[in-house]
Structures are given as C-alpha cells and as structure tokens.
Amino acid sequence: MYRVMAAILFISGSMAVVTACKQTAVQDDEALQSVRSTELIRTSQSWDGEELPDYLQGKPEVVAVKYEIPAGKKLGWHYHPVLNHGILVQGELTIIGLDGKEKVVHEGEPVVEMVNTIHHGENRGTKPVVLYMFYLTQKDIPLSVQQPDIPLE
C-alpha cells in the first residue's frame, strides 16, 4: 500500500513539474510571438522629393500588386496617375526619372512612387526583384500609363 501511495505521490509530483514546465514554455512561446509594429515610412512626398497630389474625389478602390522583375530587366517608361507605395522584399530596384534622378531601393525598404511623373525601373542586380505595391485609385483608372514612344537606353 505504501508503495502504491509513494508511486501516486511521485507521479502526481512529476505531473505538476511537467505541467509547470509546459506552462512556462507556452508563456515563452507567447512572448516570442508577440505582435510588433514598425512604421517603415510616413511621408507626403514621393521618392524624388516632390509633394504628393491630393486624394482623388469619389469612391476609392484599393489595389495590391506583386511584381516580379527578373535580373537585368528594364521596365518601360511610364507614369502612375494615382497614389501608390510599396515594399521591396527581394533584390534591388533602381528607379530612374525622366530628368535623370535615380533612387535605388534595397531589400526591405519602402518606396513611395512618383505620381503623374514619367519614370522607369531597372533590376541591375543578379537576383529577381519582388516588389509589393499598393495603389489608391478609383474604378477604371489605370495603375500606370505606358510611354512606348520614349526609348530605353
């Protein structure tokens, strides 16, 4: 009988220790998984320093686009008639304005695009660019307007 009681006490004590360890592990996991917020950018200017235009009037449409640009690829000259910004999650993207201004966006960096200003992008790196862009537009307004008459050099 004493052996049975001792075994029960031993098992109960072991279970209490395992439960306590399990609770501590859960608490540690919760601490590691806490939500963090990091503001990447807050601005009223595009990457070239120009002031952004006023919002469109009317019902908004929000669009998110994932762009994948192969190494060595140049995008054609274009402009955006609407506000847009994004985050470069892989690679390195060089944005060039028609005036010759350049901005290199590195992995993990945000970018606020020019509005109604002609520019193009180039992946001068060795790996593909992955870029997530977010547009504030309205129905039937294009996200970008291509300028095929302007040659890329």
Describe this structure in words.
- With 153 residues, this protein is α+β, with helices and mostly antiparallel strands.
- It folds into two domains: 1-36; 61-146, Sandwich (Jelly Rolls).
- The chain contains one helix and nine strands; from the N terminus they run αβββββββββ.
- It has one helix spanning 2-32, and strands spanning 61-69, 78-79, 83-90, 92-97, 102-106, 110-112, 119-122, 129-137, 145-146.
- The strands form three sheets. Strands 1-8-3-6 form a four-stranded antiparallel beta sheet, with no helix packed on it. It has a three-stranded antiparallel beta sheet with strand order 5-4-7, with no helix packed on it. A two-stranded antiparallel sheet has the order 2-9.
- Strand 4 (92-97) and strand 5 (102-106) form a beta hairpin.
- The longest helix is centred in the first third of the chain and has 31 residues, at 2-32.
- It is globular.
- The relative contact order is 0.23.
- Mean pLDDT is 86; it is low at 4-12 and 14-18.
